[in-house]
Amino acid sequence: MSVRRDPITGHWFFRTRVTYPDGSRGRIFGTPGVSGPWHELPQTRLGAVEAEQRAIMTARGGRDIRPTPAKEVPTINEYAVPFMDFYAAAHKPSSKRDKRQRLDAYILPTLGHLRLDQLRQEHVDGLVADLLARERNGRKGINTTLSVLSSLVGYAVTNKVIADPGLSYTVKVQDGELVAVAPDDVSRLEVAAGDARYRAAILLAADAGLRVGEIRALPWLDVNEIGRELAIAWSYDRTNALSETKGWERRTIPISDRLWSAMKALDRAGPLVFARRDGKPLGYDAVRDVLHEIYKRAGVVAPKMPWHALRHTFGTELARAGADIQTIRELMGHKSIETTMRYLHTTRDRKRSAISGLSSLGSGWAVASEPESK
Length: 374
What we know:
Elements: E1 3-5, E2 12-19, E3 25-30, H1 45-60, H2 76-87, H3 93-111, H4 121-133, H5 139-158, H6 183-193, H7 196-206, H8 212-217, E4 223-224, E5 229-232, E6 234-236, E7 242-244, E8 251-254, H9 257-264, H10 284-298, H11 306-320, H12 325-332, H13 337-369
Antiparallel strand pairs: 1-2, 2-3, 4-5, 5-8, 6-7
């Protein structure tokens, strides 16, 4: 019997086979009174019979009304291929490499077997718990890994592979303290550098806020000697791959007097300002190791990120001098204003500390100056 009633839902439906004009045969089925082509018919046996007759007539008219097989949703493992091949295609080499490493090391081993439409918050939270259990993964690094997962899922949503699952992909992170090199220590590093190239490089970070990759990639063509400005547009990553600057933000920075003096003392052996003796680019590991030696010779304790701490000096001193937030953001090349706000918070803390010291000094002075009672 082609018309029947579902014993579980109680709904009437039909299921039958038809022959199309081209001779092919297929099975068709449907339910009246629900969303679909027969929604206006009553949800009764007669409604199901009428829906069946309409479906047969439509099929005989040449229209293929066989149900389209449900689209198979790929697994996260499978969708990582178009994600990397297409979504990440235009990203910087270092960014692509980082995504690939985080997928292979953390995301795919844990969640790769799941279909995209099976991903739930409990799976994301389980990944976080697994990453927290590994001592190497700080919360900031975990958020970076989660952002890769979020981008992959978001790409699938954009391409209508799945509906937006509405998941949360972040863990709370305590703001890290900005570690900047004190101005006096920057002067000590200058003296201890010895090599004119490293003296200029130190000041490119401390007086112009360049990242180490930007220092290694700065060409003389981007040094405006008449206007005394630097145009920052390129960066080398740790593998010496050249790309545009972080966040794709190009910026122009005035050259301070002492930086200009240091740059004029350089030999122009090639197209780069800071390079090997033969003019070729310096490797990341080489400049890191040399800077550590300079810190030792100067008697300055090296921070965890010695080059980046010099860049923090630039931002901190701008804030201390009263530069407005937008100017600091533009000079530092920050994509997000929240990143720049950290320098203002650091300055406010120092101001509070200074005022607190004045208050204590003032109280002591007041006590000492109070006239004796007669």
